[in-house]
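Memo to structure team: turn this sequence into structure tokens by end of day. - J.P.
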Amino acid sequence: TQSTWGSAESDYCTIELISAITLRHVLNVRIKLKMLRSLSFGWGRLFTGKHASTIGSLHASNEYRNRHPISCKSSLASEINRSVTQGDTNTDTGSPAVAVTRCSTSGVSPMCRHSLRSHGCGELTDKDIGLTVTLCGWILHKRVMSGGKFGFIVLRDWSGFVQVVFTGSTETGRNWLKLASHWSLESVVQVTGLVESRPTKDINYDQTTGAIEITPSHIKLLNKAEAELPFLPKDAPVVAEATRLRHRYLDLRSPAWQRRLRERSGIVHRAREFLTSTLGFVEVDTPMLGRLTLGGAQELVVPSRESGRFYALPQSPQIYKQLLMAGGVERYFQLARCFRDEGGKPDRQMEFTQLDIEMSFADSDDVISVVEETLKRCLPIPIATPFPRITHAEASRRYGTDKPDVRPESELLDLDGLAGTNQGVAVRGFVLPARTIDQSMRSELLSIVETESNCKLFLMEFNENSEFVGVPSEFVDVSFLRRHVDLNPGDILVVALGDPDSSLRSLGSLRSRLLSTRLSPSDRLGFVWVTDFPLFFASDGTGGPGWQAAHHPFTAPLPGHVDIVYTDPGLAIGQHFDLVLNGCEIGGGSVRIHDSALQRFILESVVGVDPNSLPHLLTALNHGAPPHAGIAIGLDRLLAITMGVPSIRDVIAFPKSSEGRDLLTGAPSTLPKGYIDSYNISTVVTGG
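Reply from structure team:
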């Protein structure tokens, strides 16, 4: 835990108090503060060693609660209300500490308890007029009038901002005006003062604090920022992303980031509370350092001190959560950190967070219901459940993709009748409604038609005279359109000619590019489940030994397709289901294989993975593993869409760049040679 507006000296007892209250809430017991003398402690250590038997019996021991009340060496009230005296030394830096005022707990905003302030800047309204408050924050804006008679600063914190006004009518005021003129933006200050109403002519009705201002009685500069910062948080939307990533702490101060971080925290909290308290799930941490798992995404490896041996960072806790089911946990979840060695895209990062869920004695319907209920309770926007479901084959036919955006009304049409008796040619199309067409779309559409290589694309406009303009010679029966396609004047029919797969893929991509990208989440959230995926696909286009798992090799086939796996894997349908939102896959789940013989056959004979690389899983399946199913929801993707931002980098506090670099810290970086040698590896430098 880290708290702003505190110090090791002034907040020692407060931190102990927060720790004790937290443990009391978690363990439902009273904790002696002398048990918490470290500002940081490991949860694992709390439950092991000499305290293990005591902690393990806390819930059942009323006697323990009576014997161990919360204690503190000094009076809590005096400890919280005391101030750091001028001249105290910061024990971390050796420099003089700033004299700051600690607020009394009476009349303090709940969000500002145990801190150096009484309220958040954005919490104050005209109902607080006459109240003396203490605020802490950053200088967002300042203005000092010529002549030194009047000036103000706008103070900002996580909750918003408020105006602090200085007048030159007193010597103190003149001194503050003089000091304020030298304070740079983003400097950190503490202000104690009276909440007063603004003059009527100065009221800003668009701001929650627009009817008030603070007349200060005490101001302290806590830290002066450099005059020339790389950028100001208020300008972040127009600053290059690389610059914002390099100085992420400045970016995070912006109101947009403060809102997103708190919304993310609230969503995670509500999901965790619902899964544990309502549905009886158990949150379990799985290891970060594990064994390389073949047959999936490229994993990141970590060297060990054993020569020639490496760990792998998990692309997913897949194996561990199945082992938890074999271990009788029955209902597991965690907010799992996952890693994949792949390039960054707007919806991908080398490291990301997923809501990982696994259930014993459950099928796909059970998992789907759990996800829908959880999302309905944790998202801050209303969503309608149950979500619609379509099969993989239906999604491909209607939308040209297995990640359909179901918001646009236009679906793909079977227009084979246009080609007459032309055998071997598939004709597919979709309608662009006139109301969606603007000049930029027309230009983009013409460019795509000219450059498309997978099939022939044609544009046919239905004019005001109910006539088709631009009908190609390949279409011998235009009357087919009048009978089968509902068109309005100004609509454009986009038609693709080619083999069925190419036509569907091209139109699906074009539909998404033209229609989906012009919609925003406010146009409604389009959740849809895609089910009944092929269990395998031919990675080399020929089948046979080139089979790859469509989901992962631990997905069970449909009950009636088990025999097909052994005879013709390419025809087997899996119990795999994806959750798609606005054309983006945000979750993938399946019923798992719990039969060791079937799992071994798929690994060895279908996808070509050595079963000896997963002896722990195969052995566990042989030792009485129950039927189980699960899903992983990409938290970052979900939040990016629901918050209306273009990239998951906009919902991750410290993301990697599209090249996989941490521009803030400079990772990846080189290592000292001695450090490398201890891991029995060597590096090869390539390139000029």
